[in-house]
Amino acid sequence: MSRARSGAPEFSRPLPLARLGMQPFRQEIAATEAERVALARRFDLVALDRLSAVVELVREGSERILLRAGFEAEFAQSCIITLDPVVGTVAGRFGLLYGPPEAEDAAGGIDGDIAFEPLAGDTIDLGEAVAQEFSLALPPFPRSPGASVEDQMPLTEDTGPLAALARLLDRPGDAG
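User: That's the sequence. What structure does it adopt?
Assistant: Structure tokens below.
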């Protein structure tokens, strides 16, 4: 789940690892209006009206930290056919196990719902973790109710995928 982008995350809630004790750490986070605008731009949304989450972190030994979170969002995407806004909501739960990069192979036996995330530095960015999981939960092909490709581009004999080839074959004087 590493970020391939450069620059600061749009929805950053860094948590210094020094704040984590032996007891679970729980926090509610919500994106501000400016953060939602920036996230909408990042994820190619028409709008992001709400993104909130409840995150919990638990130390697992001296080097590993388990993050479990639940998030909810309200957004609008462009219909892939009509480009009209399609309003949507999504809620999800996820888990990430943070640890030193060399511990990734040893983490292979963890629960299948929990991904390993190499720990770089002395903080975990809760907001970025939620933003990435939110992006994975978005519908990949949003469609307005009732929108279909056939309504937008009716295929006839004259406009089908082989129409240009048929016209070439039917040109007068080309018979050989």
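The CA atoms of residues 1 and 73 lie 20 Å apart.
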